[in-house]
Amino acid sequence: MTAFVPLPLTLVLDTPRPGALRVAVGGDLDFTTAGELLTTVAAALDGGSLTDVHLDCGGLRICDSSGLSALLTVHRHAAAAGARLHLDERPPTLDRLLDVSGTYEHLTGEPAMSDRWHSTTSD
């Protein structure tokens, strides 16, 4: 049997343009690492000059319920600071978690995957 080896969370920050923050998220966003994402984004939002926060989730391997809670909290902090949260390059597993939890549209601004599926099958 193969043991599951957690991957540490990596966060690489970049400012591609004034008012925008890009955070490349890699590894596992879970109970042990969710606080790190929250602390990092909250510190970046403290300046008050951001209008867009892009989380590049392309390197995200796992997101559990604590990770989802962190994403919802980041969304809330960004909105309170007047910034819009973008979840870019989402892996299918994250899209599925957002869909099943009912948070897809809230966090992405797009219709939920299950809603899109139902509308195409009912035609």
Give the CA-based shape. Answer: globular
For the terminal residues, how far apart are their CA atoms? 46 Å
Biggest β-sheet, characterized?
4 strands, mixed
Strand order in the largest sheet = 1-2-3-4
Low-confidence blocks of residues: 117-121
> Please, how many domains?
1
H/E series: EEHEHEHHH
Residues in helices, as a percent range: 40-55%
Describe the protein's topology.
Blueprint: E1 10-14, E2 20-29, H1 34-45, E3 52-63, H2 65-80, E4 84-88, H3 92-101, H4 104-108, H5 113-121
Parallel strand pairs: 2-3, 3-4
Antiparallel strand pairs: 1-2
Helix pairs in contact: 1-2
Structure description:
With 123 residues, the chain is α/β, with parallel strands linked by helices. It has one domain: Transcription Regulator spoIIAA (2-Layer Sandwich). The protein is 42% helix and 26% strand. The protein is built from 5 helices and 4 strands; from the N terminus they run ββαβαβααα. Strands 1-2-3-4 form a 4-stranded mixed β-sheet. β2 (20-29), α1 and β3 (52-63) form a beta-alpha-beta unit.
